[in-house]
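Hey, I'm writing a tutorial for new members on how sequence and structure tokens pair up, and I'd like a real worked example in the thread rather than a made-up one. If someone can provide the structure for the chain below, I'll link this post from the tutorial.
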Amino acid sequence: MKKVVVFVLLLVLVTTMVFAAGAKETGKKQLTLALWDENQKPAIQKIVDQYNASQDSVEVVIELTPWGSYWTKLDAAAGSKDAPDVFWMNTYLPKYATGGVIQPIDEYIARDSIDMSAYVDATVQMHQYEGKMWGMPKGLDSVAVALNTDLFEQYGVALPKEGWTWADMINIATQLRDAIKKAGGDEYPILMELDAQPSHFNFVHQTGGYVISQDFSKSGYNLPETTLAYQRVVDLMDNNLLAPYVVLSDTNGTDLFLSGKGAILFVGSWKGQVLENSTLGQNGAIHLITMPSQEAGNHTVLGGLSYAISNYSKNKDEAWDFVKFITGNIGNTIQAEEGIDIPALKAAQDKYLENFENVNIETYFKAAEVAVPFPAGPDFTLWFGYVNDYAAQIFGGQISAEEGTQAIYQEMQAILDK
């Protein structure tokens, strides 16, 4: 047994020495790029390989950590001031900016005359905090509505057109409901996933409310407009226009739609490939349209990632050079060609379309034009759970929309006031 242990230790030592010798031999500075999505890793690796091939003194190495431990690992590394040189960042950005983990990049942007108007505006906004830019936009996701054209034809209801309103949707869904009932069908007029991003956060902004103020100091859940957004979802259920909560909490709304059980689906762009490759999509029976307008418009809450530079990196200039590459024309074009993400760089978006033949995916670009950044802030992880919990109670009929939004406001504002 001792021989085995000694052999293993010698193997580790020799491997370490070989690696060190190799690193010393190349003489290149090694930058680490941290990300969490193994599905995107091959495409990101292509970009990294192309960058590395163009460099004489720098080499970028990908560090993949699954989502479940990504943030824990990042926090631990930041605590020891040893975070990766470059890493993916999302709505948690204010926390890491406030904590001094991220390097602001405004000086780099100005020095290299980077045109930030070339990126979708909401992706730029969501990576700004306290007047500074903390990450370069990677990609985006928005929300639109998918229509099962077969069901519309089957039940003799005309498809909605761009520019439709919430009232139009209710009228169309009512026609579908009545036709389905008359024919003895079991389909639902409307389906959605009742998570914040694909549904109710969008509706809050569409009715004229807000989730959190732009300075992240005030909850918008005490506003009647915010309550109205939740009440309208409840009304859809009460009138048998939207599948009941017991169904939507048990079965994914997109899965129901793709199995032919719904005519209208609110769905995020991150499901684009799922729609494209589905039997329904391949049969040409899916048509996308932007969300119906309410009082304040048809805003979509836009999510997306950025590439952030560690404030502790010893090679910040080199890290910026890489970030500039991966978020520039070459990086965004490869990302678009691989279909992993809608590029935040507008010039590369046409390449993304080439991955789709069955679904008019460009509708998500239209939605992004009227997007607002996903509402977050430095205390997001502390209050978001309350939003989810009370929203579930509202949609489940346990409490009224007014009671639920007021409860969210009290919990959320108490956190923001600390």
